[in-house]
Amino acid sequence: MLRRAGPERSLLIALMVLSVAILIRSAPPAAALWIGTALVGAAIAIGNVVLPVIVKTRWPRGVAATTGAYTAASALAAALSAAIVIPMTRELGGDWRAALAVGAGFAALAALVWLAAFGRAARPLQDTDRASVHRGPIGASRTTVTRSPLAW
Fold this sequence. Notes:
The chain is mainly alpha-helical. Helix 2 (7-25) runs antiparallel to helix 3, helix 2 (7-25) runs antiparallel to helix 5 and helix 4 (63-91) packs antiparallel against helix 5. The chain has helices at residues 2-5, 7-25, 30-58, 63-91, 96-118, 127-134. The protein has six helices and no strands. It is globular, with a radius of gyration of 18 Å.
């Protein structure tokens, strides 16, 4: 997906899948809880792979600060989501499914902000981008993550 859609579009797709997955997870059948949770995990996994690529190609001199900022933002969003579910469930008359569904709105808002900020700039990775992303600390070209010392 990263090669075909490019990093920015891949992250946008992951955010849209996340929004839909949260809604699926909030649906009444018990199976929807499990399916939605698996899709939430997949969307987050895609985001966790794509975001470092975006950071390294867009902000190569500020990788540490940018990575720290988005990691802190992700942790804060997860903590806030967990913190508001119980109070929101009480406010919604005990409907925990509706309280979980609120998270879809936040994911959709993030997708809209991302689209506004980077939508037109989205492009597939070029060979030069791939080379800069896969270059190891010594400068040698790496073809896979499994062979990159930086990944491990």
